[in-house]
From TrEMBL:
InterPro entries: Glyas_Bleomycin-R_OHBP_Dase, Glyas_Fos-R_dOase_dom, VOC_core. Residues 4-126 form the VOC domain. Pfam families: Glyoxalase. It comes from Fluviicola chungangensis. Signal peptide: none annotated. Gene3D superfamilies: 2,3-Dihydroxybiphenyl 1,2-Dioxygenase, domain 1. This is VOC family protein.
Amino acid sequence: MIQREKIFSSFSAEDTDEAYFFYKNVLGLEVDKGEMSVLTIRINEGMKIIIYPKQDHVPATFTVMNIPVTDIDDAVEELTKKGVVFLQYDMAYIKTDSKGIARNEHGPTLAWFTDPSKNIIALIQE
C-alpha cells in the first residue's frame, strides 16, 4: 500500500546544471546530482524533492516549493543580494510591498520568486 514515509514531490527544470547551482549556492539547500541529471534536494529526515530535466519544460503557474523562514525581511534582503528578484502582485487578495513581501493580516507573510526555470517558490514566515 502507500508508504507515507517515502512520499516526495517533484517538478521539472529546463537546465538542471543551472538549477543545481541555484538551489545549492543561492538558496543554500542540500542538493545531490544523480543519474540522468536528476537533482535531489534533501529536506530533513529522509524527505526530498526531485527536480528532473525536461527539454520542453513549461514553468508551473503555481508555487512548487514553500520555504519557511523566521524573518522574511532578512531572508528577502539576503536573497536579493544574491540576485534573486521577488515577484510583485497587486490583486484583490495578494498585494506585495516594494520588497515583494505580502503582509496579510488574515494569512501568512509571503514573498515569491522564481528559479532559473521560472518555477515559483515562496518564502513563508513562520
